[in-house]
Amino acid sequence: MILYPAVISSIAVIITLIYASYLDIRDRRVPFRTWYPMLIVGIPATVWLLYETTANLSLVFGYLALIAGFFYANYLDNRDDDAPFKFYYLAVVLILPALSWFVLVKTVTISIVPWYGMFACVLAYISYEEYKKKSPETTKQKRKMPQATIGDALNRWYFVLVIVIFAIASFFMMSGGGWGWSGIYIALAAVFCGVFYIFGRMHLFGGADAWALIFIAFCIPTFPIPPLLNNPPVGFLSFSVLVNALILNLVAPLAIFIINIVKGNRAPLRYLFFGFPVNGDKIQDSWGFVMEEFVESKGTIDRRFIGIRDSLSRMYSGKDRMYTKDLRENPEAFKKELAIYKKAGTVWISYAVPFIIPITAGLITAIFFGDFLFAIMNFLIGGA
User: Fold this and answer.
1) For the chain, what are the domain ranges?
2) Coil, strand or helix at 185
């Protein structure tokens, strides 16, 4: 069956992702406003789809409540501390789930009341803490302090609680609130999007890549057309997009490994899959992160590859990670590093194909062909 609202949304999402991929290749940056076209089309289309297929206003408002929660978290995390705090945002975020869970249902599930209370208290506390902030300097000092108290931990990890509450509430609404099996989308979207929002916030995942997956989940809840390789059991499109993107993205490391072997480039085995050497005096013309550390002593340059654990730590902190884009845009600030790279002759850098490109390819292939992993498992089981 063709779901026409999802088809309309899919077209808007694909066009937006193609443009975002172009921006990421050109500038290595995707402004948040880039996502507006797909959201302007995709959110109303999904509301139309949910109401057309379920006629359940409670479910529709649960979907809108989930979206509002993510936008509010983004507002809290990126708000200018000198700007007036917009409490009406908080009001919207609290009203939408209340309408969904208590007002637009035939029977209120009492078990959900304490979860809503926890949800409201967490967001009210975090909002009050944000309201008290006076300047960016105060915020920076606070972030440098050890996370020693419950309040500090809540400020840092509150969104994990919000996501857990949304998921639990969705299961309550499925069983006693009248959502039925259709509510699984809200629960899956809460967990899926929550994981990638937190990954993006921790610098373990690109911001644009995280938002791309989150907004795909918001705008295309399920397969708009029957894929050639059949629907997976749950039919949650975003997971299939991620799986396809990861499988397609495996092509790049294999290709890099083969090229390194053919060219005779020498490095520890794991680095042969993820990087390649470039001329030190032309490193600014390349795209990627520097994979080596250099120390110059008495005219001798010692070099070592940055370990996986160290690299992940730098990704998380957002510090001490040398990006060739920084060398290109701020050469005066990196005179010492550029001089050492030139003396070193060659420098290993990681390949820098934006993950948003495999995400775009993963979406297109998921819509038309289906979930590659599900198809492979079916093939193996069928052939066994």
Assistant:
1) 4-225, 237-384
2) helix
